[in-house]
Amino acid sequence: MIDLHLHTTFSDGTFTPTELVKTAAAGFSAISVTDHDTVAGVPEALEAKAALGTELMVIPGVELSCEYLDREVHILGYGVDVKNQTLLDVLQELENERIERIHLTVDKLTRFGLPLKFEDLPITGLPGRAHVARAMVAKGYAVSVSDAFSRYLNPEKPGYVARNKLLPKDAVELIHQAGGVAVLAHPALVKMELTDSLLKDVPVDGIEVFHSAHLPEQTLEYEKFALSRGLIITGGSDCHGPKGKDSLLMGTIDLPEHYFKQLLRAMDGIA
Ligand code: AMP
Ligand code: ZN
Ligand code: FE
Ligand code: FE
Questions:
Q1: Which ligand neighbours the alpha carbon of 239 most closely?
Q2: Residue 198 sits in the same domain as residue 248
Q3: Any domain includes 6
Q4: Which among 14, 56, 98, 144 would be 20 to 30 A from 201, CA to CA?
Q5: Distance of CA 124 to the CA centre of its chain
């Protein structure tokens, strides 16, 4: 199996990179660590792979949060050089903005009548709204993480704080100069039609066609679009760790091998 969209404790996932690699080594041939706005979890994943002596391929990745026409657009970067200084400088700025934003989020919710402290959030790496959501569930302010998002943390809700985000075209350029391949993540979640004019402003090399939130008909539509334009096709579960008792998104998406090989060729071409 091949899963190229996975989060760890370095952003808002709950598996450490070591746990992720150990879990994947059992049934996967390739994975990618794609944390939000950071590549800091990649070295641990590569060390865990080496320590296990597994054949599993571990692709360095990142998922950059961008904004386009008031919508959140995520751009995946595959095969980036995790020591690229320009990339690291931008990621440091994004980290600082995330810390500031989550402080403001906690203050806003506290003023709204739902007291929270930044220090009490279950943050292990770069902070995100998911950490606030988990703390809200623990405090009994929400019944689930998705309930916390829909009532308090999504745009226009009482705990929402806007953030300066990258423009998609700047994110693509950042990934390219770090030797990576840029891919538009989960187009169904962007709620924007895939068109050639969108690609002018979001000039990615590929589309994440296979994703756990895509309906079968959406997967087919995106695959057709990508194939007709010669774009790279990727896929991943977007697993953030175990969900509830036994359920895990990892293992629900398997990128066909021939698409993965095209991505590897493109990574070679750019690096
Ligand atoms: P942030 O990057 O801090 O703006 O938080 C956005 C992230 O939170 C997304 O990329 C998802 O990983 C997660 N997220 C957003 N909405 C939900 C939801 N309804 N349920 C669970 N996780 C969510
Ligand atoms: Zn996330
Ligand atoms: Fe995403
Ligand atoms: Fe993701």
A1: 4
A2: yes
A3: yes
A4: 98
A5: 16
Q: How many domains does the chain have?
A: 2
Tens digit of each residue's pLDDT (9 = 90 or more) over 58-98: 999 999 999 999 899 999 999 999 999 999 999 999 999 99
- Ligand 1 binding pocket includes 236 (Cβ within 6 Å): no
Find the 11 Cα to ligand 2 centroid distance in Å.
7
CB 13 within 8 A of CB 42: no
The two most distant CA atoms of the chain are separated, in Å, by 54
Distance 76 CA to ligand 3 centre (A): 8
Q: Which domain holds residue 61?
A: 2-91+163-270
**Is the shortest distance between the CB of 130 and ligand 1 below 6 Å?**
yes
Its pTM stands at 0.96
Residues 191 and 139 in one domain: no
Half-sphere exposure of 171 (CA within 13 A, CB side): 32
Atom of ligand 1 nearest to the CA of 101: 3
Q: Is the CB–ligand 1 distance for residue 152 below 6 Å?
A: no
- Which CATH number covers residue 29? 3.20.20.140
